[in-house]
Amino acid sequence: MFILQVEHKVPNYEGWKKAFDSDPVNRKKMGVTRYQVCRQEENPDNIIIDLYFDSMQNLQSMLAALQNLWEKVDGTVMTKATTRILNIKEIVDL
Predict the structure, then answer these.
(1) In the chain, count of helices (H) and strands (E)?
(2) Per-residue pLDDT for the chain (94 aa), expressed as one digit of tens each?
(3) In order of start, what are the domains of the chain with their CATH numbers?
(4) Are the C-beta atoms of residues 77 and 19 closer than 8 Å to each other?
(5) Strand order in the sheet with 46-53
(6) End-to-end CA distance of the chain
(7) Interatomic CA distance for residues 50 and 33, integer angstroms
């Protein structure tokens, strides 16, 4: 399982959340199996999103779609997007 972790700043969380919830890239169709949205406690304008995938190919397709989207909305809905690709090796529920 893979995670595409996205981090960016938002000028207005409620406006960003509305845009995120409208799902302009169709997360499910792109292979996202689950996601989580986090706000940094010490800096609530910093958002971290973990998108989970079963395949690296789907993750890479989503990353390309997101980069295309960000070119259109950078500076309005969000700014300074950075990404990390993570390969989950172990998940333990305690």
Answers:
(1) 2, 4
(2) 999 999 999 999 999 999 999 999 999 999 999 999 999 999 999 999 999 999 999 999 999 999 999 988 888 889 889 999 999 999 899 9
(3) 2-87 (3.30.70.100)
(4) yes
(5) 32-39, 46-53, 2-9, 79-87
(6) 20
(7) 11
The pair of three-digit structure tokens given for residue 74, joined into one six-digit string: 């950078």
What is the residue type of 17?
K
Helix, strand, coil abundance in the chain, percent, nearest 5: 30, 35, 35
Closest C-alpha among 88, 89, 84 to residue 48: 84
- Tell me the C-alpha distance between 26 and 20, whole Å: 10
